[in-house]
Amino acid sequence: MRVLLIGGTGIISTDITLLAAQRDDIDLYILNRGNLPQFIPEGVTLIQADINDADTVREKTRGMTFDVVADFLSYGVGALKQKLDLFRGRCGQYIFISSCAAYRPPLDFTIQTEANSPTGNPLWQYGLDKTLCERRLAEEYAESGMPYTIVRPAYTYNNIRILQPYTINHWRSWTVAQRLLDGKPYVLHDDGQQLCTATHSTDFAKAFIGLWGNPAAMNEDFHITSSDYVTWQRIAELTAEILGVTPTFCYVSAQDLFIELSRSAGEKIMATTQHAVYDSAKVRKAVPEFICTTPFAQGLRRTLQFYLDNPEYQKVDETWDSDFDRIVETYGS
Length: 333
Prior knowledge:
This protein is of the alpha/beta class. The chain is built from 12 helices and 14 strands. Helices cover 38% and strands 17% of the residues. The mean pLDDT is 96.
């Protein structure tokens, strides 16, 4: 099976690349700018290009066909259309990485399934854009017959991403850990008791690869999640516990944070005011070997240990750190 990952070295896709590279039945290609060679295992073919440079991508993939193309880098319909144009007629299955942010927030506590969760999130532009991409895939299938699969991650983390409810760049998620180490208050929206579903990227990879070429996945949508449900406050408490410090908290209403932060950050905070609890029965039926083996506390410990062992990755987002300081000063700790 010849597979192309558009991306392949990101927060979710790195462990997919590592796991797929171990399979003798998978001929794996990844297409990206080549900025993270340390995350590309032996045996994987790198097509080094900027996916936004359509002419270069077309030239470097000329004559190539793929059983699966997995797109980790489309955040709007325009970007998706460009990729569909590039691979139309030479792709057996187009997998689009959407997001559980595409779901409309439930009005009350609901264990969400694909069937009971309509898309079209009105609270968060990111989720709405992902919804529009999903609809474009259905249109593409009707027009050209290209089979597709929609995959919606929720809160997926790896060695780089320390889970937190903000839009801090994942590569600077050490920001929240450094604040805890410095004794600064951890800012939480509302009372911090909203549940989210945390999934380690090594577990996500098992289900994701299981959808490749899978007849049960064609023209279907799946969220890939664990059954590890944890509150935002508990995530912060565990982070502090592993780091060996005692946390203090600054509780601020989500509405106030929406006003204080940038639009995208504020929209995400408003989206996280609802519980985000998902039932992954659909993907487990399609991929019976999908079993999550990394409990959140264990996965978080692994993440923080990576940072402690590799201090060159301990980067702080100074803008976010200043925003948190300002919010704490305004609303108290």
